[in-house]
Amino acid sequence: MGINELLNSTQIGNWHLKTKIVMAPMTRSFANNETGTVGEDIVHYYRKRAKDGIGLIITEGINPSPRGKGTFGVPGLYTNSQVDSWRKVTEAVHEEGGTIVAQLWHVGRLTHRELTGGLPPQAPSPIKADGLVHRLRKPYDTPEEMTLMDIKEVIQEYALAARNAIKAGFDGVEIHGAHGYLIDQFNCEMTNKRTDEYGGNLQNRLSFMKELLMAVINEVGKDKTIIRFSEIKDDIPGYRWANPEETIKAFIQVFHEVGLQIIHPSTNDFTEKMADDMTFHQLVRKYWDGIIIGVGNLNPQTASKAIAEGTIDLAAFGRPLLANPDFVQKIKEERPLKPYEAAIDLKYLN
C-alpha cells in the first residue's frame, strides 16, 4: 500500500485539501518581537509548503493577547497591523491552492513578566512551574490566579483573535489546548486547585475550555474550529492521566456538546500504547467519529497505514517539514527525506 493514502485529496467541510498531509504547528519565533507582526520571510515559508502540496497548514502558535506570550518573536492576532501582516501569508497560501488555519496559543503560567509587558503570568492557580522560560533562560514567574473577570476577558480575547483570523483570510483556527499551556492548566488537577466552578472534578476543570470553544465557534463556525489536546505537558515530563480512557471520554463529551467536527490529539509517539493495548489515537477513535488529525513523530508509512485503518483522517508532520520544504514532492517521487537538524532547521526559515 505504501504511502498512497497520504497523497489522496480530501474534502473536509468547505475545505478541499490537496493531500491528507498536515503541517503541524511549530514555534518559529521569526515575528517582530515588539509588534507581533510577521514579515516576507514568513510569507515565503508558508507559500513554499502550500506550493509543495501540503493539504492543511496549521500555523505556529499565535498569541490572542500580550499576556499569552511565552518566548521572543511570537506573532499575535490582537492588533490591526498583525491582522494585515497575516493577510499576506493567507493570500500567498491561497494563491498556491492551499488551506491554512491559525493556531491560537496562550501559554498561561509558562512565561515571565519580561515577556508579558511587566504583568505576571495568568493561570488557574498561583502555582509556579518548574524549569526555565524558553530562550529567556530564566525560571518561570509565579503566576497570578485568574479571577472570574480575568477568565471572561481571556475568553473574549480568544473570540476576538478568532474573528481577526477570519479577517486576515485564514480558513479557520486551531485552539491550542494541549502541552501544559493555559487551557491545559485548567484541565489538569496538578495546575488547577480552584474551588469555584472552574475547579474540582474533571468536568468542572474542563469548563474553561468548553466556554472558550463556544465563544470561538460563535465567531468562526463549528466546521472551522479545531482543538488540540494532549496528556503530555511540556513542563511536567513524567505526567500521565490516572485513567486515560475515562479522561478521553470526558474531553470528547465536551467536544460533542459544543459541536466540534475536527480534533487534533497530540502525543510525542503515535505508536505508544496508552491503555488497554491501544494508542492515544485509537482510544480517541473509539469515542469520536468526526475528523481526527494524527501526530506524534509519524513517518509516511505509519501515517498512511493509520489513515487506511480509519484511526485518523489526516496526518500531521512537524520536523520533517522544517527540513524538507519539498516534503510532498519527495514522497511522491519516493526520494529520501533530508534528516532534521535542529542547529540548521530551527535557526533559519527554510
UniProtKB/TrEMBL annotation:
Residue stretches making up the NADH:flavin oxidoreductase/NADH oxidase N-terminal domain: 10-337
SUPFAM superfamilies from the UniProt entry: FMN-linked oxidoreductases
Any matching Pfam family: Oxidored_FMN
GO terms, molecular function: FMN binding; oxidoreductase activity
Superkingdom to which the source organism belongs: Bacteria
InterPro entries: Aldolase_TIM (IPR013785), OxRdtase_FMN_N (IPR001155), Oye-like (IPR045247)
Protein name per the record: Alkene reductase
The species this protein was found in: Lysinibacillus halotolerans
Lineage of origin: Bacteria, Bacillati, Bacillota, Bacilli, Bacillales
